[in-house]
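#struct-pred

JT: dropping the chains for the assembly here, can someone run the whole complex?
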Amino acid sequence: MKNTIKFLIIALLFISSIHFVIAEPICEFDFFIYKNDTVQFHKINSYNGVGDSNELKQSDYALLFLDATNNMVDKIYLPIIFYVFDVPDGEVDSIPLSVRKPCNSKWDTMNMLHNNKVIFTLNVKNLMCNEDRLCNSYETYLTCPSDCPSGSKDGWCDRKLDSVCDPDCLAERDPDCKAGVQKGMSEKNYGSKFNLFLIIMVTIGSLLIIYLLRRRK
Amino acid sequence: MKNLLDLSFEMNLLKRIKYVWIIFMFLTFINIVYAREGLSFSTSLNNPDSINNPALYSVGDDLVWNYQLSNLVSGFNTNVCFYLKDVSNNAIYDITNIPILKRANEQHCASPNPDCPITLINYWIGTTNELPDRKREGVIIRYTFVSGDLPLEKDYQLIAQLRDPNVKCSNPNGIIPSTVPIAESVNYFRYIRPTTPTQQERTNPSLNCVSDYSCDYYFVFVPIYWTNQAEFEQKARERAIFFQDISKFRDRKVGFVYVPINYVEINCDFSNFLSDPRSRENHQKIKDCADAYTRSLGINYERAVGFSNSLTGGNAYFSNKVVHAARGGSRHPRTIEYLISIRRLGDAIPLVAHELAHTYHLCDEYGYFEYNMEDTYLRSIGSYCKDKYPPQCLHETTPYDGLSANTCKGNTPTFRDYSGNPLLEGVCEGDVHYSVMGGAVQEECGYDNTGGYEAVG
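RK: done, full complex below.
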C-alpha cells in the first residue's frame, strides 16, 4: 500500500513537472533601445508558451525584476547589438528588443541596467496585475486571472471550455463559441459574478455561524 | 438413364456457355461503343474517391491524374471540359442537373480565344503541366492549388466531359450538357483551409497540428503589400516548405500560419513600410501584427516573417523574433539600383531561410568583412557565429559593395540538400550546392554543415 502511494506521488509530481515544462504563462516585454541609453517601453505581450532556453550568460545589458521589498526575483541578460543584418553599413543607433520570461506574480518593478547602471525603470505590477477587479492595461487571464477571468476581453483567446465565448478569439477559435454560447464576460457581468460569489460566501458563513451558535446552546 | 442425364448436363453446359458468350459479346459491344469516345481517368493519388472519404487538398498541393483518349478522338486540350461541383450539401450525383461551380479548363488554352477567356479561374486551378505519358499513351495533368478563396472545409467533385470541338464548355453557374458521353466524375476532394496542414502533416495525421493547436512551433507569415491572398499564401508556403525541409524543423510538429490580408488591412499598419523596411519601427510593426493575430488564435509563435511583395531583399536584427523578407531581390542590397540591375529579379525562395537563420545566430557567408563584424558582435554577448566562414573565401576581406562579381557563394556542401515536395524552382540548381547564408544565386540548397544546420531549430 505504501509503495503504491509512493508510486502515485512520484507519478503525480512527474506529471506536474511535465505540465510546467510544456506550457506556462510567458511575459514578453518589447522595447526600443538606443545607443545613448534611452529606453522606450513599447508593450507587454503574454501568452502560453515555453521560456527562452537560450538565455545569455553575459552582456553589458540586463533586466532585473524586483519584488515589493526590492529583492531581486529574476535577472535576464539582454542580447543588445546595434546592428542590422543584410543592409549596407549595418550599424544602427537603436534596435527593437523583445525579452521573454515566465511570468511571476512576485514581480513589482523592472530595472534595465547598462554596465550596472539603471537606465530604465518600469512598474510591472501596475501594468500586469494591479488587482483592482478591472481587466485593463496589459492584464490578461494568463497574468492576472483575478482581474481578468476566463472569457474577459483582454486580447488573449484562452480557448478554455468554460461556456464563455471569448470575445478575443477569431471566429470559431474558441470551442465555446462554436457551441453558440453567448458573448464573453464583460467587466460588468464580471462584477455581477463577483457580487454573486460574495453573497454566496456571506450566506454560507452566516449559516455556519448560526449553526455553531445553536450547537453551543 | 445415366446417359440421358449426362446428355442433359452437357446440353445445359452448352446453353450456359452460349449465354456467357452472348453476355461477353454484349459487354464487348458496349465497351467498343464507349471506347470510341475513349475518355478514361485514373488519379495518381492514393486516396479513395468516395464522397464519404474525400482526399484533402490545400494551397500548394498538386492534384495529378491521367486521362486517356482513344485514337478516334483527336486533340487533348480542346476536347475535354472540366468542371468543379460543390457537393458539400448535396451528396446525390444527378448527372442531368449539375450546377457548375467553376469551369476548370481555361488553363488548357495556349492563347486567349473565345473559348478561353483571358481571365483565369482564380479559385483553385493554378499552373498546369500537361505531359504526355508514353507508357500509358495518355496525358498527365497536374493542377496546383493556388488559392485560399474556396469556401473552407467543403467537399468538391471534379467532373470531366468530352465535347464536340465546335461546342464550348459550359460556363460557371450553367449546367453540364447531358450529351453523350455523359460527364464522368474524376474524383472527390475536400478543400481545406490553407493556413492549416501542410502536405507532410496530412500524410501523417499525427502531424496535423494547426487545427487543434497542438504544434510545438508556429511560424507566422505577415503579408505586406500583397493584394491577393492566394498569391501571398502560395509564395509564403514555398518559402516555408523550403525552410522547414532544410532545417531541423523538418522532423518537428511545425505549423505555418498565414495572416489574412484583410486582417492586416484592419489591424496592422504597414503604410510607408517599404520606404525603410529595415527600421526598428517597421520590424516592431511586423511583431505587433503577428502578436495580435496569434493572440486571437490563442497561440504563441517561434518566429514571424514580414513577407513583403517587393524586391527589397531582407533584413533581421540579432536575437529578434521577427524578420523582414521580400519576395525577391538581393539578400544584401546596397542600393535599389543594384537590385534592379544585378541580382535576379523575381522570386528568391531561400531569402526567408537566410533571414530566419540570423535570428538563430548564423552569420553572413557572402563576405568575410560582414562575417567577422557579426561574429565580433555576437562574442560581446557570449555567443558566436554558429556557421564557420567558408575557408575558400577568406581572401575577401573588403566590405561587400553589392556589385562585386566574386561574392563568396557560401559553405559547401550543405548539411542536407533540399529534397522536399514540391520541388521548387530557383533553388539547388547546378552541380555544386551552397549554404543559404552565402551569395550564391539559385544554387542555395540548405544550411551549412559547419554548425549552421545544428543551430536552426
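JT: nice. The beta strands of chain A are 24-34, 39-49, 61-66, 72-77, 84-85, 94-102, 109-114, 117-123. The radius of gyration of chain A is 23 Å.
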